[in-house]
Amino acid sequence: MSAAGPSPLILYVPGLLPKPEAEVHKQALFRCLIEGVRRVEPSTADEILGSEHSFDVVAWTFDFYHEHRDFSLDAAAIDAMFEQSGASTEDIDQASSWQRRLTRWLYRLGDRLPFLIPHLATERMELHLRDLRRYVRDSNGIAEHTRTMLKMALRAAAKMQRPILLVGHSMGSVIAYDALWQLDHDERDHLNVDLFLTMGSPLGQHYIQRRIKGHGQEIAERYPKNIRRWVNLSAVGDLTAIDPTLADDFAEMTARGLTEGIEDFAMFNYFRLGGELNVHAEYGYLINEVTARIISNWWKVADARLAYTKN
Hints:
This protein is 51% helix and 11% strand.
């Protein structure tokens, strides 16, 4: 599509913790996404770059935390990641280590037996749980405010008849899922997301599943019906995606024809901050070849469909 006409939209919802200033964060994320796509399909990367407003971010974290993260803390690590063509043997070994597998097993045990959480939680996990509870309880309306930001962006894209790839990283996937459920069931909005891409998602956790929108409803009202296709990515060793597969947890959606399908893919995230491997990092998810192929394939089909409609 030409820059003058509508283009497909890649809409990104970040997870918890403060992020850099909105425009700086958006540029860094887009840079990683484009680099990943360029490595697998250079022409598609050029098309995405050449399409006006092809990528946007729902910058909700400043309203949640009232602070920004200093981007200089991440800049060198992103540059270093660009120097790698993929996960190294050391990255793979660390991500797959028995220590990480044991920690993941303990976290899954805590997810099933919540009374164990105080005995298992690290300081970092306690902070995440605090923020998660704040979202779940909608303290001062912050959760609804966050979902409203996303729904506004989705409605604007739908009004222009733009195909939408909705990307949710970590807690962003929960926010996205809840917003889609509300659009479908509470607001009876008929917009559809062409592809829902979740990365490092906690939606497989029992704790989350008991608190997302639609839980406890009759089957007909339990799930959103506005996701054409759902792809879930989990990095090996990611301790947020302690249950790395979602196709089984949300199998009822596929069985009832509410979505064309849910697919799960594993990958190796090789982002390092201060020399320490961070397999949950959003920048590492976006540059990854697995992510890039999914985005590239979606873009080509969505863009061709727009061109056909225009003609």
